[in-house]
Structures are given as structure tokens and as C-alpha cells.
Amino acid sequence: MTQQRLDPDRIPRHVAIVMDGNGRWAKMRGLPRLQGHNAGMMALKEIVKRSSVLGITHLTVYAFSTENWKRPEEEVFGIFKLLVLYVQKEIRELNDNNVRVNIWGDWSILPSDAQNAIRKAMRTTQNNTGLCFNIALNYGGRAEILKAVRSICSEIQSGAFSIDSIDESMLSSRMYTNGVPDPDLIIRTGGEYRLSNFMIWQAAYSEFVVTDVLWPDFSPDEYEKAILEYQSRDRRYGGLT
Ligand code: IPE
Ligand code: IPE
Ligand code: MG
Q1: Among 78, 162, 216, 222, which one is least packed by beta carbons within 10 Å?
Q2: Looking at the 3D structure of the chain, how many domains does it have?
Q3: What digits encode the pLDDT tens for the residues 1-10?
């Protein structure tokens, strides 16, 4: 419905989403939190599809943060199980739609079935040329920066280059987003006005849209509303219009 009103020349290249509100969605219905995460997976499926249709080239979603380990074990491992199911169910359609799947974050410590599903998804879709769909999983912005700094320091230690040659582009090249444009638009569902450690390096000039809609209720139509809001923004990057 909103689609006609979107300016096709100002579609964001990279949209990043903090998919928040699954727990509240479940609580409102008297359901266990995991049911909320399950409903969230369904919502995600539709958003990925609409992203391709709209011509967005990069979609990044925050699925599990480095701080989410503070939750009860049952919820944490339930989320990983759902993820495996999602990948198994969706991989074929994602591949048919030419979507390339990437997983950002330290997923090396996840349960082995989750790791296998991730490897399979990345391998199956690695040559696809459509939407780049990135899932931030056991991801933290501070951990990402720390990883980049460590990698640069170890190369300096080995004599590969000097401290003077460190610049922003070198640091950027050590992030998961190497080669990916910074997010133009960051959407957060669930109504909180914070980043919660998501893409803190890359968000320097991103536009924010926060909606009270809980993630499982975030429809493609709501998605287009957020993009419409983005299109009304004046991006000055510190300069003048
Ligand atoms: C977001 O939903 C999903 C994850 C953090 C894994 P929440 O589970 O945080 O939902 P609320 O914020 O409790 O409603
Ligand atoms: C952010 O949501 C992380 C994800 C959506 C994966 P949280 O629910 O963890 O964020 P806080 O705790 O409200 O900041
Ligand atoms: Mg939350």
C-alpha cells in the first residue's frame, strides 16, 4: 500500500534492524517467551522478501547480542534451536531468491548443530548476487571493535606496518562490515531508544526510526512506513543542506 509513495531513487542501500519485542509480544498473549521468538522468525521471513522487492542491497538483523547470554539458559538455547529451524526451512527459498546469507558475530561458540546450519547457509548462498542478508548472532559492537583493534595490533607487532598507517578505513576493513556500506537506516521495533551495542562503529551517520510495534507484528507495510520516514530525513553529515 505504501509502496507507491516510496521514492525509488531514495531506497536505503543498507537497512539494519534491532528486532526487539518478542518477549512482550508473547507475554501479552500469555505465551512462553520462546513463542514470541518463533513468531519473530515468521516476521523476519516477510521482511527479507520485501527487502529484495524494494531493491535494498543489504539487510542486517540483530538476532542475538553478546549480552543476551544473561537470559535463562532455556531461552538462549531455544533461540539457537529456532535459528537452526529457520535456516533449514528457509534456505531453499532464500537461495531461489538469489539472497546471500552471512552471519556476523562470534558464532564459533554456538552449539554444533547451529554452527553446521550456519555453515550450510553461507556455503549454499555464497555465489548469489541479490540481497545481502546479514544476521548478527552473538554479536556486540564493542566486541567487534576490540577484534579489529587486536588484528591491527598483531600485524603491527609482526612489522607489517607502522602505527601511523592506521586510519578509519583500515579499522573499518577489520569489521564484519568490511566492504559493506554503513547502514543508512536503523530500525528498532519495541519502542526503546537505544542501540544495545548494535553496529556502534557503523551507525555514526545512520538515520534512526523507532517504532512501538513489537517485532512479531512488524509487517512489510510497517517496514515501508519506516522507509518512508527515512526518505523524509535531511542527511547533512555535519555539512549544510
Ligand atoms: C528481541 O526480543 C529478541 C532477542 C533479544 C533475542 P526480546 O526477547 O528482547 O523481547 P522483549 O524486549 O523482552 O519484549
Ligand atoms: C537487543 O535487544 C538485542 C537484539 C534484538 C538481539 P535487547 O532486548 O537485548 O536489548 P535491551 O536489553 O532492551 O537493551
Ligand atoms: Mg528486548
Answers
A1: 162
A2: 1
A3: 554 589 999 9
